[in-house]
Structures are given as C-alpha cells and as structure tokens.
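Shipment paperwork, digital attachment
Item: protein structure file
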Amino acid sequence: MYVYLTAVAGLAVLLYFYIQAHFPYFGADFAYILRALKLGVRLLWYKRTRPFYSILDCFLDAVSKHPSKIFIHFDGRAFTYGEVDKQSNKVARALQAEAGLKEGDAVALFLPNEPSFVWTWLGLSKLGCTTALLNTNIRSKSLLHCFSCCGAKALITSAELQDAVIEIVPMLEEQGIRVYLLSEGCSVPGITALSDNISQASDEPMSRDLRANINIRSTALYIYTSGTTGLPKAAIVTHERVWAASFLLCTCAVTEDDIIYVNLPLYHSAGFLIGMAGTIERGMTLVLRRKFSTSQFWDDCRKYDVTVIQYIGETMRYLCCTPKVGANDNQRNHKVRIAVGNGVRSDIWAEFLNRFGDIKVREFYAATEGNIGFINYTSKIGAVGRVNFLQKFFFPHTLIKFDTEKEEPVRNSEGLCIQAAKGETGLLVGKITQRSPFTGYAGNREQTEKKRLYDVLKKGDVYFNTGDLLRFDYDNFVYFQDRVGDTFRWKGENVATSEVADILMMAYCILEANVYGVKVEGHEGRIGMAAITLKEGEDFDCSDAYKQVSTYLPAYAQPRFIRIQTCLEMTGTFKMKKVKLVEEGFNSTLIKDSLYFLDSERKTYVPLTKEIYRAIAARDIKL
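Attachment content:
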C-alpha cells in the first residue's frame, strides 16, 4: 500500500511539472472556465425565473442584506444601500406623479457622474422604464438626434448641463418631450424643476407590479456609440446584456469586500455596466468621481482603501506620465490589487506595474453592441484575452481575412469568407445565435444591417461584424491590432495606426500622436499622416522624430506628414477623432497648424512649404 501511494504521489508530481512545462496557463484557464460556468448557470436561472430577476432586484436584495453598507462614496459624502434605495423610491414617485411615466416608456438621462445619476436610473427602473444614457459632451444636432433614435418621452438633466439643454428645448417641446431639471427652481420656459417634488415624495417601496412585464430580452438601456465617424448610434442593451457585462468583475475574482474606483463616464458601457452594475452584482462599495484626475487618483485610492480600479488606455498612460516622486515616497503605498479595463499599450502596461506595484491588470475586449468579447485573466502583458473551447462553443466566433483597401472581407470563389490563420491578423466576427444575439441600434435599420455579415463560413449564416482587426497567437492569446477604419493601405501594404503612433511617441518631444491615412491626388491608397501634441516646453525635434520612424518602421508605414496641434480632439472615452483630420489632409493653404514633411533625401522632417505642397501635387516629389 505504501509503495502504491508513493507511486501515485510521484506520478502526481510528474504530472504537475509536465503541465507547468507544457501548459503554463492551465491553472488560470481552469479557474476562469469554472467561474464562467457558474455565471452561465446563474444567467440561465435568471432567464427562467418568474417573475424575471433583474439587476434592480439584485440591488434590492443587497439593500435587504446590508442596508447600512456604503454603496457610494462621492466628494467626501457616503451613501448607504438603504439611503440610495429610499432616494430612488422618491425619484420614482415624483416622476410617476409629474410625468405619468409607466412601464415601457423611454427616458433620457443627461447627467454627469454623481449619485443622482445612480438613484435616478434606479427610480426609472422601478417604474419599468428604459433609460437612454446621453453623452454629456454632445450638443445641439447630436443631442436632438439621440432623442429621435430612442423615442424618449422625457429628459432629465442637472443644473450644470442646463445651458446645453436650453438651446434645444423648443424642438423638444415640438416633439412632446418634457424636460426635468434636478434643481429646486428653474425660470426657463419648458423646463420643470423636480427637486422639490422629489424631496416631498414618499420613500416607501415601489410595487413590483409596475414592471411586471419586463423580461430578460426587454430593452434596459440605450447606450450611445462615441460618434467618431458621424452621429451617435443608440445601441440596444437588453437586461441579458446588463447581466452579462456586470459579471465581468466576478470573472476577475472581485468580491463583495472589494472597493472599486470609477472615474469613467456612467453614460458609457464601461462605467455603467462594468463599474456601476458590476458593483451592484457584487454587493460592494463604489467610489465615484466626476471625471478622471491624474493628481487625485492615488490620493483617492488611499483615502477610500480602493482595491479595484477601472481604466482605459489613456488613463493608464496619464498616470505613468506623472513625475516620478522622490526616493522617500512610496508610489506603491495603496491597496489596489486589480485593474480592469481596455486599450492599454504594452509599454505603458509594463511601466504601470513597474511604478505602482504588482497589480493584476485584467485587460478585456468588448463592444457595447457586440456579441463576442474576451478577457485576459492571466498576467500576459499586451493580450486582450484568451481563446478557449468553452467560449468557442457558446459564442462561436472567428477571424477572417480582410482587404483594408476595399474595406471588405476577402471571399473565395464560392463567395464565402476565408478564415485567418493562427498568428495572422483578421477581422473578428461573432456568429449571431439565440445565445449570442445582436440587437442592433434603435431607430437605425441601415446601421444595424451594416453590422451583419452574411455567408461567412457557410451559405445562410449571419455574423456580427465587429469592425476590429485582431490576432490569435499560437498560445491562444488574443491581441487587438486596429479598427478597420483606423487601418489604411499604402504601397500595397496595410498600416496599423496604433503601431505608428506608439513609435512616434518614442520621440522625446512628442506627447500624443493621432495617426491616420490621407488621400494624395494621383496615388492609390492613403499615405500616413499624424497629428501630434508636444510636451510642455518642447519644440518639434525633426531629427529625433525621423530617427524613430526610420529605425522602427518600414518605409511604407512612416508618416510622411506631421501636423502639430495644441490638443487632440477626443470623445468622452478618450478615443481620438480622425474624420475631420482625414478630410483636411495636408493642404497647407487650408491648415493653420504647423505642418512638416518627411524628406527622405535629407533624412529629417522639414517644414511643409507651399512649394513642397505644389511639388507633391505635380508629382515632382516621389512619395
């Protein structure tokens, strides 16, 4: 018996070392798959439960379980689960009495990051309303467009955004849309102050019968795309999608004892679905900020004992660009153990860990309206996720070859798409099934149809076109390469703008770079150009910039034109806007910014004069 046990133990040790050597991510894969299976069972139970169990019901259970637990920290104030629940009841009753809102009505929230955003949404949910989350940066035409998308019956806003609303009030009144201001008074015709009504309303619980017909496929939210290429599109977010997104924190091993720091806007999916809804799903505490602050970030984390942070790539970079403190100051003096987000560059990722400690960075890939996503549950720097059999089975997806010049998938003689090989960049598409639906955009059939791709792997199948180029490596890691619109073709080669931007920012003088392709008369494709900003006190170092691009980039990928700007125009989630830049091109007669041209003969960047511009137009200069 002893010999037998010794042999078994020996085999177990050998098996362990074999797995470690040949399957180094087995443990992480196993833990992730186990969590995913548990969450899948939960979601299945929610689908079949009658009446339907929503994220609101999860919040109400948390209120019953720990009413005195802090739900939100904001600007030095703390709000418990019980307090937020009562306030949301008051909001619901005030809106019910004043606006006559009922189940199925759509209401637009035009609010900044503050606790009233949370309890107003909860109050609307208790009435069975669908909430449209409006980007607080949009104005005029775009703001009106958002109403036409979702058919909202009312708009709720705050005093600080009143001026943005005033200019469209007459048009809203014409459409029968009522405007409510979370303020004690308002003298503007067409806007009703609501704060007094809320304060006088009862905080008694709302009847569940008010949302009796809501189910898992009902629309919970409209979340708008950034509008980098036009007017915003209202992505339809069902209650099923809310649950699925809220589970992301759980897959990262976040628990109810954690405290999460959210400075991303609540009108977007990352802040709302992952940050706020994820907080409710876990029953934990949320530290909410109006907006990201580099100087206050770590102070806030220390003050509130934050253990989980949300990020996007730019916030990570801003933190890494802060001055390094003295030897006596400890930048690792915090309790943050997990960072959840997307869009961080590999070099910034490595620097972040080096400066701020062993934080588990959980980079993910997803889209608000998409039906496929990934998460890097390992510590592999640079990857946005891993491919595993479970995900492939439940959410079929693939990478297909894509022609960036024609901006369409490559198809074979049978009219079917061609799958990209391992290690090859391809367009990510997710099969549209009952388990992985694509609900589309409200009031925009044309854009919804554009995202559907037919006859992908076999005749009659339908896939969701993510519009993103990714790469699966031989170890099953997933790497984001570029967005289709952000990739251009020059000299018969594909150029990834993010790669060029990374190289440009290696030049000491350059702070930020926005890379894009522009048309040149008489040439096919698009040639590389970059709009950049300079570090404070620095001038554009032509020689250093040339050195970086010529050393690390092939000739076809080197940006031939540089445009220096005081700031780069971005969306609310720090995505760089390119459409206007692309349209303006490198016409020195129209552009007031300083322009430079890569002179390959002189091996440097030189000012783009009118003479050089004319020579390029006349094709006297070879590009």
